[in-house]
Structure formats: C-alpha cells, structure tokens
C-alpha cells in the first residue's frame, strides 16, 4: 500500500472509505509505536502496544499521513525522520479538532516561502 494513516479514529474511518488503511492512536505511546513500526519495522515492542490487525496494512508504505496531534506526540523523532530523506514521506494534516495553536496552514507556509501576502 502506498499510503498509511496515523491519527484519531474518526479520521481513520474517513480514510478507509477512500482506500487508505491506518491505525488509530490516542496517546504518545501508541503514536510512537505505530510510527516506529512503519519506519523501522514491527518488532515485539510495537506489537505489544498495538493490535496485530493494524500491522498488516502498513507494508509498502511510501507516504505516511499524520494528524498534527500525532506529529506533536512524536516530536524530535519525527523531525529526525523527515530530515533523513527516507521513505515513507510524512504529511501532516489537521485533526478533527482543527489546526493546533501555533501551527501554520499550508497556504500560510507557501505565502511565507514565496514572500507574497495578499
């Protein structure tokens, strides 16, 4: 599978409707276990924290979609992965509660990079 989602259960249901599998996470421990399972391989530690049913759908993941909340839980570990240039590529999206305070939207980031504010 090319895409995989890590985030809240409501968004996971929506992603499954369009054919993208994933795993629901509710805290930093499950988010970290899911992230490490996808990026480093599913070891006993990850399998102990997460249901085995979710492990199957992550094979061949090239793009990992994370909610902003899950990304915050991962912290520096996520930043290190993004800077490594390895697959899967990571895309952050707002969760069901919307953008987290202090986060820029994609449009704001583009405007800042281009230097045009309309």
Description:
By secondary structure, the chain is an alpha/beta fold. The chain has one domain (3-114): ATPase, V1 complex, subunit F (Rossmann fold). It is 49% helix and 16% strand. It has helices at residues 9-17, 28-40, 44-49, 52-56, 68-74, 76-84, 106-114, and strands at residues 3-7, 21-24, 63-67, 89-93. Strand 1 (3-7), helix 1 (9-17) and strand 2 form a beta-alpha-beta unit. Helix 2 (28-40) crosses helix 5. The radius of gyration is 15 Å and the shape is globular.
Helix coverage percent: 40-55%
For this structure, what is the CATH class? Alpha Beta
Strand order of the largest sheet: 2-1-3-4
SS-derived structural category: alpha/beta
Query: What overall form do the CA principal axes indicate?
Result: globular
The residue-averaged pLDDT reads: 79
List keywords for this structure.
118 residues, Rossmann fold, single chain, alpha/beta, globular, four-stranded parallel beta sheet
Task: Describe the secondary structure blueprint for this structure.
Layout: E1 3-7, H1 9-17, E2 21-24, H2 28-40, H3 44-49, H4 52-56, E3 63-67, H5 68-74, H6 76-84, E4 89-93, H7 106-114
Parallel strand pairs: 1-2, 1-3, 3-4
Helix pairs in contact: 2-5
Short description:
The chain has helices at residues 9-17, 28-40, 44-49, 52-56, 68-74, 76-84, 106-114; strands at residues 3-7, 21-24, 63-67, 89-93. It is α/β, with parallel strands linked by helices.
